User: Which sequence fits this backbone?
């Protein structure tokens, strides 16, 4: 029997994977070694067109700014020694020179002792003068003389030549991003054209048969191409000129043709997707044919983001980002942005990092650099970073996320209360005015709408009721929305409050059985009847809720000991239940009325759930909290909730 026919032992497969996986640091070092040093190509640009580009060379000031000693006020150029004793009680009389120095007028007469020259703001100080007296502190005496009523120290109200910018001084360094301030500095020195780094052209390609471009109809089982838009924008934000080439199906020939075409006209190529097993070999194979040295790192010890590929083909970086949008974001910002900026002649992005305290422990896999998405809120002493959405496929937490932190490969956790460096997705921290941490409800958006219109930024972080209570107890949020049922007292929420928290009644959400309209097993019957009908039909599939959800308690009560097909399908949200029924993956489940109605499903009401707020008493007087309480109590708020199917408490 030949070796080739022998099954590969499990050990050797695992070892293979282990050997081909590089650490984040190793992978980055090899990638950079293959790309740098390299010259940054530059191009000349007129000042007016240079905004947003990076300077390609240091700029040395060619002149002094101001170019001469300049008066800062309207008044008289004097010799300070002449007026050293002047005061209102003892004014000093001096002769007026026969000259008025306006802006743009070069003086011709010197200021001799006992004389002064009239000068306007911005005028050049004449020979002999060493100070300027404000016109307010003088009094004309005929039209040949004035009285001075205030003393002047040498240099008073004079900007000396070169005091803004000194000739020969390094004005701006290569790599500086040109903004309005830099344009002003260059203009003040009379520089009309600068050499800027040419923006590298970065081709962006998404891969996957399932991808549809935003704006087009979503076919069944298809998803919108998120990475294309994200990467295109992030390339532009970091000094590249993005060239989006659309989504390419998982077809070797077609993909290779697109990649070759892209590399013809662009300086860099960023793909996403197709990096999972099987399909991954496809891009791997293509890259091997595209140029030298080819693949640098395929499989990196990142979580999420292991399938990231780094390659260099004839000097051009070729990157394949993981398909999941959040994984693509992490790896792009962490590993690709530094390289892109260096190619673009930009310095590392220091403005996009902040330090924050992490209030909770985050477990992490040993051996992989782990990325954790965070939302930032302002704490009593500095920023607090809230971890959110750990699943690599979750884009849910994306909207509320400000950036991410990294947990080192050698750590198995980030202990609670650690300081961490947060890489921002956008280089501005948006500190919210109102922080709501707890269970999410679509009604919340209705109530906070007037706050957003008033310019208040509301941040709501969905961590579930218990997570919200914990955050409220630590004082990390203003309000924790909760819907917790206490079986002992058969009541909602109040039994769960702790010291320092008070209950603000929110609204009621009718829970009930959801089914596809027209299903005769459920149409027109009671909730108990519906469950009896479902249990009587072996082909009927249910969708459950997660352990700990208030809704789950209701379901379990209805089911008793029964465990029908679908019982173990336990999604974590009201919306997922409705989606499962609408898409025929299940026939019934329990959700809230607004969600059932929004999905166009039939609904049998069962019991009202209380959705209330645990308010942190210490933060009650904050303006945004007051605005929230007002919005909640307002007629507009009540009407909006009712319209959406909620009942104001
Ligand atoms: P892949 O690496 O192609 O196997 O993709 C992994 C996951 O990411 C799959 O669920 C893909 O549907 C998803 N995915 C890949 N590319 C994109 C994209 N451009 N936008 C959104 N999701 C994507
Ligand atoms: Mg794919």
Assistant:
């Amino acid at each position: 029997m030949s070796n080739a026919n022998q099954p590969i032992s499990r050990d050797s497969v695992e070892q293979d994977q282990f050997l081909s996986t590089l650490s984040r640091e190793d992978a980055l070092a090899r990638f950079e070694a293959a790309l740098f040093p390299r010259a940054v190509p530059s191009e000349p640009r007129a000042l007016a067109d240079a905004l947003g580009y990076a300077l390609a060379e240091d700029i040395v000031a060619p002149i002094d700014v101001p170019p001469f000693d300049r008066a800062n006020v309207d008044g008289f150029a004097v010799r300070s020694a002449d007026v050293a004793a002047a005061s209102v009680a003892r004014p000093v009389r001096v002769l007026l020179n026969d000259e008025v120095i306006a802006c743009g007028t070069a003086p011709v007469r010197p200021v001799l002792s006992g004389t002064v020259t009239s000068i306007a703001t911005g005028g050049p100080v004449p020979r002999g003068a060493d100070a300027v007296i404000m016109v307010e502190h003088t009094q004309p005496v005929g039209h040949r003389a004035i009285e001075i009523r205030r003393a002047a120290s040498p240099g008073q109200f004079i900007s000396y030549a070169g005091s803004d910018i000194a000739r020969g001084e390094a004005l701006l360094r290569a790599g500086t991003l040109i903004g309005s301030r830099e344009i002003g500095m260059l203009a003040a020195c009379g520089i009309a054209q600068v050499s800027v780094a040419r923006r590298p052209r970065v081709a962006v390609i998404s891969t996957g048969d399932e991808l549809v471009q935003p704006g087009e109809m979503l076919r069944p089982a298809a998803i919108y191409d998120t990475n294309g838009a994200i990467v295109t924008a992030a390339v532009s934000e970091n000094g590249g000129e993005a060239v989006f080439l659309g989504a390419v199906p998982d077809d070797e020939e077609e993909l290779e043709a697109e990649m070759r075409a892209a590399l013809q006209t662009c300086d860099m190529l960023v793909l996403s997707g197709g990096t999972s097993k099987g399909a991954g070999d496809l891009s791997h194979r293509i890259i091997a044919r595209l140029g030298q040295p080819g693949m640098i790192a395929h499989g990196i010890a990142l979580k999420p983001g292991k399938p990231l590929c780094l390659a260099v083909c004839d000097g051009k970086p070729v990157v394949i980002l993981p398909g999941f949008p959040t994984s693509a974001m992490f790896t792009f910002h962490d590993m690709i942005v530094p390289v892109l900026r260096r190619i673009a002649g930009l310095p590392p992005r220091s403005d996009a990092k902040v330090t924050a305290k992490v209030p909770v422990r985050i477990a992490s896999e040993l051996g992989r650099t782990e990325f954790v998405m965070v939302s930032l809120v302002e704490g009593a002493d500095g920023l607090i970073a809230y971890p959110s959405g750990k699943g690599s496929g979750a884009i849910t937490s994306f909207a509320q996320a400000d950036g991410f932190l990294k947990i080192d490969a050698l750590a198995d956790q980030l202990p609670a209360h650690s300081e961490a460096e947060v890489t921002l997705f956008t280089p501005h921290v948006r500190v919210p005015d109102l922080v709501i941490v707890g269970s999410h409800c679509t009604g919340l958006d209705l109530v906070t709408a007037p706050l957003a219109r008033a310019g208040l930024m509301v941040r709501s972080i969905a961590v579930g009721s218990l997570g919200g209570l914990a955050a409220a107890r630590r004082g990390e949020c203003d309000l924790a929305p909760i819907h917790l049922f206490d079986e002992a007292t058969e009541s909602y929420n109040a039994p769960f409050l702790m010291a320092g928290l008070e209950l603000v009644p929110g609204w009621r959400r009718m829970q009930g059985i959801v089914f596809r309209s027209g299903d005769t097993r459920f149409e027109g019957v009671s909730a108990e009847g519906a469950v009896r009908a479902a249990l009587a039909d072996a082909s009927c599939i249910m969708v459950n809720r997660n352990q700990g959800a208030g809704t789950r308690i209701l379901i379990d009560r209805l089911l008793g000991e029964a465990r029908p097909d679908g019982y173990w399908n336990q999604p974590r949200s009201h919306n997922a239940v409705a989606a499962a029924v609408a898409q025929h993956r299940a026939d019934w489940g329990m959700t809230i009325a607004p969600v059932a109605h929004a999905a166009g499903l039939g609904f049998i009401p069962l019991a009202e759930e209380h959705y209330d707020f645990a308010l942190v008493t210490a933060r009650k007087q904050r303006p945004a909290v007051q605005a929230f309480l007002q919005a909640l109590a307002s007629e507009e708020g009540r009407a909006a909730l009712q319209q959406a199917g909620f009942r104001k408490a």
Notes: The longest strand covers residues 501-515. Confidence is low (pLDDT under 50) at residues 1-19, 390-396. DSSP finds 15 helices and 38 strands in the chain.
